[in-house]
Amino acid sequence: VDRAFPRSVRGVLKIARTLVALATLLCFVASGSHKAYVALAFMETAITLLFLLLYLLRLDARMRFLFWPLADILNSVIAALFLLVVGLFAIIIKTNKGTLAGGVLSLILLVLCLVDVVLLCKKISLDRARGRSAPAK
């Protein structure tokens, strides 16, 4: 278990994303919103929780067959696009206050996804040499 990850900026951001996604899910479920809203909030909660566990348990270092930061970036970008659509629809339609609250939380989650993308892009650099076999510049 990586005890430093929950206290890092990326760890706090993942935990915040998970909690906001869970709150969004609860708002959509409690208000009886469209099932697509609930499905998106559930998927975002589950996938973010899985990435949090992946980094917390250091499974990304054990499972080297996938470049996990890039997979995390792709997840965040795709989630941001879906959250933008669902958040705007929920705010525009606002069948009740729960749907409106879920839409606002979706847009907050969208911002957290974009911040996560920026932090991950700063972490990885394709120009940087990896390992000893890389040629010197």
From TrEMBL:
Transmembrane intervals: 12-31, 37-57, 69-93, 99-121
Location(s), subcellular: Membrane
Domain of life of the organism encoding this protein: Eukaryota
Domain named MARVEL: residues: 5-125
Keywords: Membrane, Transmembrane, Transmembrane helix
GO CC annotation, single: membrane
InterPro entries hit by this protein: Marvel (IPR008253), MARVEL-CKLF_proteins (IPR050578)
Name of the protein described by the UniProt record: CKLF factor
Lineage of producing organism: Eukaryota, Metazoa, Chordata, Craniata, Vertebrata
